[in-house]
Design goal:
The chain is α+β, with helices and mostly antiparallel strands. Helices cover 61% and strands 12% of the residues. It has a 4-stranded antiparallel sheet with strand order 1-4-3-2, sandwiched between helices.
């Protein structure tokens, strides 16, 4: 194989490698962000839906047993999914209605949400966490008589994992890129075959024209048609040289 052909194939191989690596890095990062945003949206919807159901029950009045049953059912309903729902009861509510049987101390993120009363989105390596504080409204005070409007009575926390989805999407992306990676190389190989054929035919035509020439005649290059602009320029140079050789001294 000629050096020019090797150069073309080497460049094509480099382009294929850069295409695979670059596309993987760009789209895997973009996919991660999209999955994270979707996980946050899902967590928002689930937290608001859970609170809406709680509010409907609280509006008609409910017992401690019903509260425990509701939270247990809401927690177990997502056991076999990448989602986990947790409930936290604030100290003021615990003092008024009693503490839950099991409740871990709030971590820094939960404590910050309880203090501010504002929802918090916390991205993680393998998923996201959404904390939805339950802020007392006027309609809540008929039952929560020890609270006042604006008090944070607890929080619903939704954990949504997407590491399996990310790993699966990355594998599919890499498989597609590996399947497509030979395309530039194959295209370059076809180009080299075409150029090689053109160059070889041009050289053969010139050699045959020279072989047909007599000692007292110039080389006849009029029948050669390279078909490439660069070779056309080379042929014109050969014709000019042949004309100079034909002129008498």
């Amino acid at each position: 194989m000629r050096s020019m052909n090797r150069l073309i194939l080497m460049i094509a191989g480099l382009v294929s490698l850069l295409m695979v690596v670059g596309t993987y890095l760009i789209f895997s990062g973009f996919g991660d962000k999209m999955l994270q945003r979707a996980a946050f949206s899902q967590s928002h919807a689930l937290a608001h839906l859970t609170f809406s159901n709680m509010f409907q029950l609280m509006s008609r009045g409910w017992s401690r047993e019903e509260v425990i049953s509701f939270t247990d059912h809401a927690t177990r309903s997502v056991d076999k999914t990448p989602i986990r729902v947790e409930f936290y009861r604030a100290p003021g509510v615990s003092n008024e209605f009693g503490s839950p049987a099991v409740q871990a101390a709030p971590d820094e993120a939960l404590q910050a949400a309880l203090s501010s009363g504002n929802p918090r989105e916390i991205p993680g390596v393998d998923g996201v966490r959404f904390i939805y504080p339950l802020v007392a409204e006027a309609s809540c005070l008929s039952c929560h008589q020890a609270s006042k409007v604006g008090d944070v009575m607890g929080a619903i926390t939704v954990h949504s994992r997407y590491d399996d989805a990310i790993n699966t999407s990355r594998k599919i992306l890499m498989l597609v890129l590996l399947l497509l990676s030979p395309v530039p190389f194959v295209a370059a190989w076809l180009v080299t075959l075409y150029l090689d054929s053109r160059f070889n035919r041009f050289v053969d035509d010139v050699n045959q024209a020279i072989a047909r020439a007599q000692e007292d005649k110039s080389v006849d290059l009029s029948g050669i048609q390279p078909g490439l602009e660069e070779l056309d320029e080379v042929l014109e140079s050969f014709k000019k040289m042949a004309c100079r050789q034909k002129r008498p001294e």
